[in-house]
């Protein structure tokens, strides 16, 4: 495969450096003693079998399934079976996948001509982005990690084929790219936007013909996938109201996704527009200043940045809630574009970009430590809950949060979780009212039985 001769020398050291740096930056995610939400606990319970052969594998050929994600679900089962009982290993596996994606992003930026210094700085900015931190720290986001892994791998391979590549090299690269896109489609439906990412990768390509072929053939593959899956996807709202479509939601979702990075210390993007007008305005000022800084390099650059963000977010803009991990792929472009424009930015614009990056990184660190605190609380809660279930001898346990601000954590710890480390939780529920509770969960996850004094 044809490429600039300096690239092989530069790519590997930078990739290794980035991989290690992500583990350092995201160490609180790795050394998290617990989990963030019910999804992880549910899959751990499914995977709680003696042998891998006994896992409830999902069928690869059932395209009529509501969520056709056999690659994600089967790999998730395997990871949960192998690592979930030791949370820090499970978290390390997810951070390793995220670090691989970050290293690939660095390699892609180098392929586009970014300097090593700008690439390393951009990779650190990516690793500290709140969307990225959230995705790497929640072990229910395997699908998003896999889609971006396939997408960045495809982009890197596409950029590696120069005009002097042989037909065999080009054909092999095209086949590998299509396999990666197909695997991504078996990981999550959001992979339908990969042709958009590959089209962006064709910018100033050394081999326009090959890049066009990649975009067209990947788009055909996506259309074939949609043809197979459309009867199910069109009725997604009937299967799960969370996936109901409405174009009317798009303006709100766009604002939520664009403003959230500049709104520390919010944990999630969903409540962005419920915050004060002053906070929303401040985030808007940061966003506009950032876009104006990009415009100082090229007046069309902020337009390209926004178009690519909207293109990569397109499938989720019609949904009812903005979820952080949905913006993971868009974050790759959000970080890469200013890194590629860095050498063309005047000093004042660089200062603005650095300030915006610092705000975003501060937000990411706050999200990281918040997720760690939730993990600590989850571990304490379920350890105490297992003991309480044993002591209750089959009697129902109804739990309420001591502090109403922790009710969301209790909901995520209990919702549809059938078991924890072999202890059945079928007798456990959230109390309809505090007066009906048999136990209370404190904000740090500690569980205590309700006493007559609590009713006073």
Features:
mainly alpha, 61% helix, 456 residues, two-stranded antiparallel ribbon, 4-stranded mixed β-sheet, disordered N terminus, single chain, 6 strands, 2 domains, 4% strand
Polypeptide structure, described:
The chain is mainly alpha-helical. The protein folds into 2 domains: 7-370, no CATH class; 371-455. Helix content is 61%, strand content 4%. It is built from 18 helices and 6 strands. The strands form 2 sheets. Strands 4-1-5-6 form a 4-stranded mixed sheet, with helices on one face. Strands 2-3 form a two-stranded antiparallel ribbon. A hairpin with a 5-residue loop joins strand 5 and strand 6. Helix 6 runs antiparallel to helix 16 and helix 8 (142-160) runs antiparallel to helix 9 (167-185). The N and C termini lie far apart (76 Å). The relative contact order is 0.12.
In short:
The protein has 18 helices and six strands. With 456 residues, the chain is mostly helical. The N terminus is likely disordered.
| Main pleated sheet | 4 strands, mixed
* Main sheet: strand order: 4-1-5-6
Mean pLDDT: 95
Kindly give the count of domains: 2
**Which band does the percent of strand residues land in?**
under 5%
The gyration radius over C-alpha positions equals 23 Å
Structural class: mainly alpha
| Number of separate strands | 6
- Span from first to last CA? 76 Å
Report the helical percentage: 55-70%
